[in-house]
């Protein structure tokens, strides 16, 4: 039997529609396929073909291995997800849920770019009453993956951030609700309206991170919801950004898809998101910084010291036992100013940097926040003879 790669070569030579149909059928029924996955976002690796979100699928493991070697050279960490025929259509459904529209087959070989919707029908809920439509947010999941993937690979832009913020603001979510102590009477079977009777109690679960901070979880769809509620203990309450603003005040914050890309929001971040969604310019991209060869970087003290930003960051750092010290510098790179924060820490870099960013971004006056570990040569050089703005207190006779 011909391999899929051989059939792709035949199609490239002939552009025969029947050959193309054969490729589609083999993609549906092949015993094993491999998909590129990026652990940082807990989702498939995302790129764009013809301006549309694309994933990377491989028909043989050796083709994937060559692709992964290339990605490693680009300093992009991916891993393969093996997909069998039995799980194939579930995978294509998951791609749709995550906002993908295109599939690149056997990148690095004679490759073929196809539409996801040549394999599955694009869901159309226009004739379904709104109360019965499933909560699904492909555009938000895609925008979040694009932003955090860019953050991870140091290729993030303000447009990526603004796009994610606008999606966060406009969509509907699922919020878990323990309805076991609610006494309800259905009043309208068509639209699901109910009356909540006396002595009812609504309970919304919290999740806790490694720093003992508590967050209300929100989910973009039922797939993400079930990652949290594996035993199906909770109902899914349909909510909006207004509900996020309400609950963000009731805990340390909220988390969107905590078992996926994990977008953690504080009250200040919610204000930034609302401002961007309503059209106010916002320059708050956060990124890790590394000095590139032959790139001129100038460092100094900020002329206008961002005291409020520093105060808010210090409040956060006092709650994080993994941070020993933090330093602030004004950095000018390619004629663009940003705040460089050099951090002496242990543990998870992404968690530390994200926590500082959540605290500081709303008060950065439109400047980038760049991060670098003190352990790096760039970090050490940047803060030579500079006092930290935060230093963890030590206790004991040697403190």
Automatic annotation (TrEMBL):
Pfam family, one: SseB_C
Residue span(s) of domain SseB protein N-terminal: 162-268
Domain SseB protein C-terminal, residue spans: 292-392
Protein name as catalogued: SseB protein N-terminal domain-containing protein
């Amino acid at each position: 039997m011909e391999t899929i790669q051989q059939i792709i070569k035949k199609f490239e030579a002939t552009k025969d529609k029947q050959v193309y149909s054969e490729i589609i059928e083999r993609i549906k029924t092949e015993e094993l396929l491999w998909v590129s996955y990026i652990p940082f976002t807990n989702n498939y690796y995302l790129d764009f073909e013809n301006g549309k979100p694309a994933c990377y699928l491989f028909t043989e493991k050796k083709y994937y291995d060559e692709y992964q070697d290339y990605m490693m050279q680009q300093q992009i960490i991916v891993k393969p997800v093996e997909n069998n025929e039995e799980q194939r259509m579930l995978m294509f459904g998951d791609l749709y849920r995550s906002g993908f529209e295109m599939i690149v087959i056997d990148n690095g070989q004679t490759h073929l770019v196809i539409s996801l919707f040549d394999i599955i029908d694009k869901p159309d809920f226009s004739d379904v009453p709104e109360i019965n439509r499933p909560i699904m947010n492909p555009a938000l999941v895609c925008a979040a993956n694009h932003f955090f993937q860019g953050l991870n690979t140091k290729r993030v832009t303000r447009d990526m951030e603004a796009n994610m913020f606008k999606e966060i603001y406009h969509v509907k979510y699922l919020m878990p609700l323990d309805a076991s102590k609610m006494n309800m009477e259905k009043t309208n079977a068509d639209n699901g309206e109910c009356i909540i009777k006396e002595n009812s109690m609504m309970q919304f679960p919290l999740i806790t991170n490694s720093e003992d901070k508590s967050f209300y979880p929100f989910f973009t769809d039922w797939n993400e919801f079930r990652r949290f509620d594996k035993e199906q203990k909770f109902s899914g309450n349909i909510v909006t950004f207004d509900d996020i603003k309400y609950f963000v005040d009731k805990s340390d914050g909220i988390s969107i898809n905590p078992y996926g890309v994990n977008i953690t929001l504080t009250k200040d971040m919610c204000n930034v998101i609302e401002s961007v969604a309503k059209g106010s310019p916002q320059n708050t991209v956060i990124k890790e910084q590394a000095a590139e060869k032959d790139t001129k970087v100038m460092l100094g003290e900020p002329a206008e010291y961002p005291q409020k930003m520093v105060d808010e960051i210090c409040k956060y750092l006092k709650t994080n036992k993994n941070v020993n010290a933090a330093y602030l510098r004004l950095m000018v790179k390619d004629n663009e100013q940003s705040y460089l924060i050099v951090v002496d820490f242990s543990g998870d870099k992404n968690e530390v940097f994200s926590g500082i960013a959540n605290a500081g971004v709303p008060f950065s006056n439109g400047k980038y926040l760049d991060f670098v570990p003190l352990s790096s040569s760039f970090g050490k050089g940047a803060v030579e003879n500079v006092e930290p703005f935060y230093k963890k207190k030590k206790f004991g006779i040697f403190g």
